[in-house]
Amino acid sequence: MTQDSEWVVMGRIAAPFGIKGWVKVQSFGDDPGTLMDFESWRVGRGAVQTHYTVEAIKDHSNALVAKLVGVDDRDAAYALRGQEISVERRHLPPPADDEFYWSDLIGLKAVNRQGIELGRVDSLMESGAHDLLVIKGKREYLIPFVAQFVGKVDVAGGQVEVDWGEDY
């Protein structure tokens, strides 16, 4: 995931939906409907990003489906599969206390309570029960993003405290 302070990753294109260019969207927020508030998205991976106007978007069986201008068939929709959806930070409300945009966590140094650096937050992923921090260092750690395992998150200081051993 590319760090870009002007843009916040809010989800990803999960799969094509139908044959007319619609896509199924996986939202990374607590409220998937937040993506419905934006007229355009930046879609892509890393340095390769494309701006799309959202032609239509709707809630469909607890998921979002969207039609982007210029994406007019299943093949074009399939080509977007797995790409991240970002929106401009200036259009988002600031996160509440103890809430974070996923993209703000990427790159933070993960240090355990013994002061040992485990690595850096490489990404986050959803699981059935809760989100997981993917920490990459000498090895990879999947740490549940819950108060039991994650202490202080200092975005400005570039660090997150975790209650996790090196050998877990």
The radius of gyration is: 17 Å
Mean pLDDT: 91
User: Largest sheet at a glance?
Assistant: 6 strands, antiparallel, barrel
The second-level CATH architecture of the largest domain is: Beta Barrel
Q: Which bin fits the share of residues in helices?
A: under 10%
| Domain module tally | 2
Give the distance, in angstroms, between the N- and C-terminal Cα atoms: 25 Å
H/E element order? EEEEEHEHEEEEEE
Which strands sit side by side, in order, in the main sheet? 1-2-5-4-3-6
Query: Ranges with pLDDT <50 over ≥5 residues?
Result: none
Count of helix runs:
2
Number of strands: 12
CATH superfamily of the largest domain: RimM
CATH topology of the largest domain: Elongation Factor Tu (Ef-tu), domain 3
Features:
about 170 residues, mainly beta, Elongation Factor Tu (Ef-tu), domain 3, SH3 type barrels, six-stranded antiparallel beta barrel, six-stranded mixed sheet, about 50% strand, elongated
Brief summary of the model shown:
The protein has helices at 74-79, 102-105; strands spanning 7-17, 22-27, 40-45, 48-60, 63-68, 84-88, 109-112, 117-126, 131-136, 140-144, 150-154, 159-162. The protein is mainly β and 168 residues long.
Plain-language structure description:
- By secondary structure, the chain is mostly beta strands.
- The protein has two domains: 7-91, Beta Barrel (Elongation Factor Tu (Ef-tu), domain 3); 102-162, Roll (SH3 type barrels).
- 6% of the residues lie in helices and 48% in strands.
- The protein has two helices and twelve strands.
- The protein has helices at residues 74-79, 102-105; strands at 7-17, 22-27, 40-45, 48-60, 63-68, 84-88, 109-112, 117-126, 131-136, 140-144, 150-154, 159-162.
- The strands form two sheets. A six-stranded antiparallel beta barrel has the order 1-2-5-4-3-6. Strands 10-9-8-7-12-11 form a six-stranded mixed β-sheet.
- Strand 7 and strand 8 form a beta hairpin.
- The protein starts with 6 loop residues before the first strand and ends in a 6-residue tail after the last strand.
- The mean pLDDT is 91.
